[in-house]
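Tutorial, part two.
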Amino acid sequence: MEARVAIDARVEYGRAGGVQQGVVAIASALAAIDRPDPEALTFVTLDGLDDWLRPHLPPGATVRTVESSGARRVARHMRASRPGRLALSAAVELRNWSARPRSSSGIFESTNSDVALFATQRAELSTIPFVYVPHDLQHRHLPELFRASERYRREVEYRAYCEAAAMIVVFTEWAADDVAGAYGIDPERIVVIPPWAPRADRPVVVSKVSVDHPYALFPAQAWPHKNHASLLEAVSLLRHDGLDVPLVCPGATGDAAAAVRRHAVTLGIGDLVALPGYVDELSMEALWRGARCLVFPSL
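Running the prediction step on this input gives:
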């Protein structure tokens, strides 16, 4: 009998960067596999906030929508103004210092699944066996990029989920060693699965982002650890030496992306840097295919 799997896809569009891309990759990969029972898959999504995922779901898969929490709805409203963002920041600070792993919501058990997959760092202590994807432990290696309260929250939650998970998935051997050493996890419980890339046999798609010249691609949110600043400085040095390297940097818009734009202009390379914002998955695939190269200066 095929195992029934519930996949946590409670992600808001444009808020989670590579985590969202990872959920899309899981759905796309499962859609490409001939499965005897597609109904054995259940995707748990946020009601009204899952349009980004539905085109990639395997045919026949079940979608279980849950209401966005009151806290999420209030946060979306507060982000619209500077006073709201300041108040939200204070609320997040208080929440972080009182952090504890989320207990089971009962959602995944109610799907009658055998296994739950938490592809985001915010898992829950499900009473059915679960797979946890911590992505990285950057709060340990780059503490200067995080508030003390955020480091505390991550440490409490990541440790608890790693200890309770039936299996932990990471993307590199280095990350596997890192997680095992940090939390005393048996390496046999950690599986390395390299990140997804577009399949060579996929048909060519047309991007909604128009780029009519050779370019280097850096797909990442403009968070400090992604290190856009060093990349821009390298491009500036190359221009000084007589070589122009156009960059396309998709990722969510906002204050951080605006700061990247200002830095590019200050360095005199504003004409070389395209920030198209958060692009849909088909456009992202087209950007991958059209790029002369990938650059990845992330710390």
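The first strand starts at residue 5 and ends at 8. In part three we will examine how such features are distributed along the chain.
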